[in-house]
Design a protein that fits this description.
Layout: E1 26-34, E2 54-56, H1 70-75, H2 79-86, E3 89-94, H3 96-101, E4 108-112, E5 115-121, E6 125-129, H4 135-142, E7 156-164, H5 177-187, H6 197-205, E8 209-213, E9 218-221, H7 229-241, E10 245-247, E11 250-252, H8 259-268, H9 277-282, E12 291-298, H10 302-309, H11 320-327, H12 337-342, H13 346-355, E13 356-357, E14 366-370, E15 373-379, H14 388-393, H15 395-421, H16 428-445, H17 454-466, H18 469-519, H19 528-534, H20 542-565
Parallel strand pairs: 12-15
Antiparallel strand pairs: 1-7, 1-12, 2-3, 3-6, 4-5, 5-7, 6-7, 8-9, 10-11, 13-14, 14-15
Helix pairs in contact: 7-8, 11-13, 15-16, 15-17, 15-18, 16-18, 18-20
C-alpha cells in the first residue's frame, strides 16, 4: 500500500478526461483581468499562420456544446442570473483543433516527491463580462476616443484553465490526493510569492509549456525557455491571454500584444514609472494567485480517508487532507499521509467547519468555499449518476463566478474612487459618472435571488459570505455616498457664496443706480416730456464724468460698509 516515500496509494485519484469521464478529477484555475475593446480594423486575419485563437461559444438554448451544457445551466438560474452570465457576458473557447496540435493539448509532466505525473489541459476559455450584446455596440465601444471611461470598470474578463490527469500508463502512476493538493498550490501562481519559491516551482514544472512558437509548431518549456523566474510564472498566463479573439470575421486582441514583457516588468517593480497605465489597470485583483476550483475524486470517496485515519468520523473539518485541500495549502516535505491527517490545529478545524457546505457531508460528498478556492471531494459515480462532478464543474462554478466578478468589480470601484479624489480639482464630473456606473452595477448584479434551487441558494449564501461581498459592497457604497454628500455640501456652499456675492454687490449697485438716476435729472430744466419722447438732454461732458466718479465712490463706500458692518463673506476659492 505504501512506497519508500511513505505515500499510501489508497488515496489514489480517479483520472481521465473530465468531458469524457464524468467522474474524473480536475482542477480549474481562474485568472481575472481587465480587458479593453479594440478596433476590429486593426485585427489579424484568421489563418495568418497563428491558428491559436478564441472562438465564440454559442450560449443560446439548444445550440450549446455538450460539454458546456448551457441549456441545463440556464434553466438552473433565475432570469436575472441567466442575463448576466449568458447574455451580458460573452464566452469564448480556444480553437479545439489547433489546441490538440499544440503542446498543451497533449501532455506535460508534474513532479512531486520523486514521482512524475502526466497532466493535460483542455482548450482554455475566456469569459468576458459586459461584452456588448450587438456588433454595432462593440464597434461603437472600440471607436471611443476616451483614454479612460468608468464604463470599463464593469469589463472584467476571466481566463479559465482546466487541467486534468490522463489515465496512468507506463512509468506514470495515478496521483494521490497529496499530489493534487501540491499541484494546486504551485500552479495557481502568476507571480513569484517569495524568492526561494522558484526552486520548488521550477523543479515541479520544468516540463511545463510556456509559450507556443507558430513557425516551429513547438512549445518553449520552462527548463529551456531562457526566461527568468518572474517570466516563468507570468508568461504562461500572458501568452494564453494575448491570443486573438474572433470577432466580426477577424481575430482581434483584447489585451496588449506585448503583455508578457510589460506584465513581467510590472510584477518585478510595480512602482516603476516605465509601467503604462494600461498594464497597471490590467491587474484587477490584489493577489498573485489565480482562483482554484478543484474536484478530487477518490475511488471510495471519504471512506478512503476514514480508512487512512482508522476512524469512522464523517465531519470534514476533522481531516487534515480536507483542511489543506480547501485552503490550497501545500504539504511539507517528509510528512506522511497519516501526519497530514493529524497535523491540524483546533483553529484550522473551526475554520474548515465554517467554510464547508454540510448538506451532503454525512453522505460522503464534501463541498467547501472561500475567497481563493472552491473544492469538492467525492467518490466515483458509475455512469456519472448522480452527475456530481459535472454539476460542480458547471452550475456550481457559475454561482461562484458571479461572486468572483462582484468581488473584483467592487475592488475596481474602490480604486477608481481613490483616483478621482486624488485630483486637485475638477473631479465632480468624474464622480457623477462613477456613481452612475455604480448604480448600474447595483441594479444588474445585486439582485435578491440567484436561483430557485434549494442547494444553489444554500451554496450561494455560504460562498457569498466567505467572499465578503456584502461587507465590501456596503463599504464601497458608504464611500460613494459619503463622497456624494460631501459634493452636495460643497455645492450648497458654492450656491451660498453666489448668493452672498449677489448681496455683496447688489446693494452697492442698487445704490449707484439710484444715485445715477438722481444725477441724471436736469435739475435746472426738467423737460421730462421731451426727455421721455426723444431722449434729448443727455450730455457726456466733464460734468458727466464728475458725476460718474461721485457715483463710483459712493458705491465703493457702500460696499465697504456692507462688507464689514453686515459681515458678508467674500467669494472664496471653490474647493471642488
Amino acid at each position: 500500500m505504501c512506497n519508500a516515500d511513505n505515500r499510501c496509494r489508497q488515496l489514489d485519484l480517479v483520472c481521465g478526461k473530465p468531458s469524457r469521464d464524468g467522474g474524473a478529477t480536475f482542477s480549474r484555475f481562474v485568472f481575472p483581468f481587465a480587458y479593453k475593446l479594440r478596433d476590429p480594423k486593426n485585427g489579424e486575419q484568421k489563418g495568418d499562420g497563428n491558428q491559436l485563437f478564441y472562438r465564440p461559444l454559442e450560449t443560446g438554448e439548444g445550440r450549446g456544446h455538450n460539454e458546456e451544457n448551457f441549456l441545463e445551466r440556464k434553466k438552473y438560474f433565475t432570469s436575472e442570473t441567466r442575463n448576466v452570465l449568458f447574455k451580458r457576458a460573452r464566452w469564448f473557447k480556444m480553437d479545439p483543433d489547433a489546441w490538440e496540435d499544440a503542446g498543451w493539448g497533449k501532455v506535460a509532466v508534474f513532479r512531486h516527491r520523486g514521482d512524475k505525473f502526466r497532466i493535460a489541459m483542455l482548450p482554455p476559455r475566456l469569459i468576458l463580462f459586459e461584452w456588448p450584446d450587438k456588433q454595432d455596440d462593440v464597434k461603437k465601444s472600440c471607436s471611443e476616443k476616451k483614454d479612460h471611461s468608468h464604463e470599463e470598470i464593469l469589463r472584467t474578463g476571466f481566463l479559465i484553465l482546466d487541467i486534468y490527469f490522463p489515465q496512468p500508463e507506463g512509468h506514470y502512476p495515478a496521483p494521490t490526493l497529496d499530489d493534487l493538493i501540491q499541484f494546486n498550490e504551485l500552479f495557481r501562481y502568476f507571480d513569484r510569492p517569495y524568492e526561494d519559491h522558484y526552486d520548488v516551482f521550477r523543479k515541479a514544472f520544468k516540463n511545463l509549456p510556456v509559450e507556443y512558437q507558430p513557425e516551429d509548431k513547438k512549445w518553449k518549456r520552462i527548463e529551456d525557455s531562457g526566461h527568468d523566474d518572474f517570466d516563468c510564472y507570468f508568461r504562461r498566463w500572458a501568452y494564453l491571454l494575448s491570443r486573438p479573439v474572433e470577432f466580426d470575421g477577424r481575430a482581434c486582441r483584447i489585451v496588449p500584444e506585448d503583455l508578457a514583457e510589460k506584465g513581467s516588468k510590472y510584477l518585478k517593480d510595480p512602482d516603476s514609472n516605465d509601467n503604462s497605465k494600461e498594464i497597471k489597470g490590467f491587474f484587477v485583483y490584489a493577489d498573485n494567485r489565480a482562483y482554484v476550483w478543484s474536484a478530487a475524486v477518490l475511488y471510495r470517496g471519504t471512506e478512503d480517508l476514514q480508512d487512512l485515519a482508522r476512524s469512522s468520523q464523517w465531519k470534514a473539518c476533522n481531516f487534515g487532507h480536507w483542511v489543506r485541500f480547501l485552503n490550497v495549502d501545500s504539504i511539507p516535505d517528509g510528512k506522511t499521509q497519516y501526519d497530514v491527517h493529524h497535523g491540524i490545529t483546533e483553529y484550522e478545524k473551526k475554520w474548515a467547519e465554517k467554510h464547508t457546505y454540510h448538506r451532503w457531508e454525512e453522505c460522503g460528498t464534501w463541498y467547501g468555499f472561500n475567497y481563493h478556492s472552491g473544492v469538492m471531494l467525492t467518490s466515483r459515480c458509475e455512469n456519472d449518476d448522480p452527475p456530481r462532478v459535472r454539476h460542480f464543474s458547471q452550475m456550481y462554478f457559475d454561482i461562484v463566478l458571479v461572486l468572483f466578478y462582484l468581488r473584483i468589480t467592487l475592488f475596481r470601484f474602490s480604486s477608481a474612487l481613490a483616483e478621482i479624489v486624488l485630483k486637485e480639482k475638477g473631479w465632480r464630473k468624474d464622480f457623477v459618472e462613477l456613481r452612475r456606473i455604480f448604480n448600474k452595477f447595483t441594479i444588474l448584479y445585486q439582485y435578491p435571488l440567484l436561483s430557485n434551487q434549494q442547494q444553489a441558494i444554500e451554496m450561494y449564501d455560504l460562498a457569498r459570505r466567505h467572499f465578503d461581498i456584502t461587507d465590501f459592497y456596503e463599504e464601497v457604497k458608504r464611500e460613494i455616498d459619503d463622497t456624494h454628500e460631501y459634493l452636495e455640501i460643497t455645492r450648497s456652499t458654492d450656491l451660498g457664496k453666489i448668493a452672498n456675492l449677489i448681496a455683496l454687490w447688489g446693494l452697492p449697485l442698487a445704490f449707484a443706480a439710484l444715485t445715477a438716476s438722481l444725477f441724471g435729472m436736469d435739475v435746472e430744466h426738467l423737460h421730462l416730456w421731451e426727455w421721455m419722447r426723444n431722449g434729448s438732454g443727455f450730455r457726456p461732458n466733464w460734468e458727466f464724468w464728475v458725476l460718474f466718479c461721485l457715483v463710483s465712490v459712493a458705491g465703493l463706500l457702500c460696499w465697504c460698509w456692507a462688507k464689514y458692518k453686515l459681515k458678508i463673506p467674500g467669494n472664496g476659492e471653490n474647493i471642488s
